[in-house]
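Tip: read the tokens left to right.
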């Protein structure tokens, strides 16, 4: 089961809720800059974000969970983090951060905590994601959180804010080391 919340020094990650529609729309969902490298277009209305949140809430929480990133001091929404378990042994993720919060290490802080938690779970051996080859910010976040670039996936994802054609993506992951596997056995 994916956790209900994650806490870091500056953030609280909690499941997205319908009440978040307005703050999420205002913070990042309508921003062409924040959504540039995502697999969905910037939302044009609150109805768009409400539909998205409904789809998040319909996914069983043991398979996937979308979290909002809130400041621990002010509760303002700064972004979102999607955590998915496509197989019993691995997790995948995606994230978005509102532009005013870029460059402050918040997403690295959140991802580092999630990676720490994930690899402490006995059944999880891998956590990973991809990012567009031009998305230097996301690549740096994953590297700072200890993920390793595994290679380039050619024509992997369509980023509709950039192109109608599939684009190349870097693949990043962190796996549990052999000695960690032996220690947990």
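Filled-in amino acids:
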């Amino acid at each position: 089961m994916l956790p209900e919340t994650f806490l870091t020094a500056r953030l609280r990650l909690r499941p997205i809720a319908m009440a978040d529609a307005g703050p999420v729309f205002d913070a990042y969902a309508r921003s062409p800059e924040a959504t540039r490298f995502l697999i969905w277009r910037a939302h044009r209305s609150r109805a768009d974000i409400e539909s998205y949140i409904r789809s998040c809430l319909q996914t069983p929480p043991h398979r996937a969970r979308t979290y909002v990133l809130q400041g621990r001091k002010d509760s303002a929404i700064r972004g979102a983090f999607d955590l998915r378990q496509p197989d019993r042994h691995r997790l995948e993720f995606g994230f978005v951060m509102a532009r005013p919060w870029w460059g402050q290490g918040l997403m690295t802080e959140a991802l580092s905590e999630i990676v720490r938690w994930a690899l402490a779970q006995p059944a999880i051996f891998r956590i990973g994601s991809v990012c567009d080859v031009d998305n230097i910010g996301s690549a740096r976040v994953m590297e700072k959180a200890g993920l390793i670039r595994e290679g380039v996936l050619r024509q992997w994802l369509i980023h509709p804010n950039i192109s109608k054609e599939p684009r190349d993506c870097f693949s990043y992951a962190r796996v549990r080391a052999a000695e960690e596997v032996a220690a947990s056995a």
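The chain has a mean pLDDT of 93. The longest helix spans residues 106-120.
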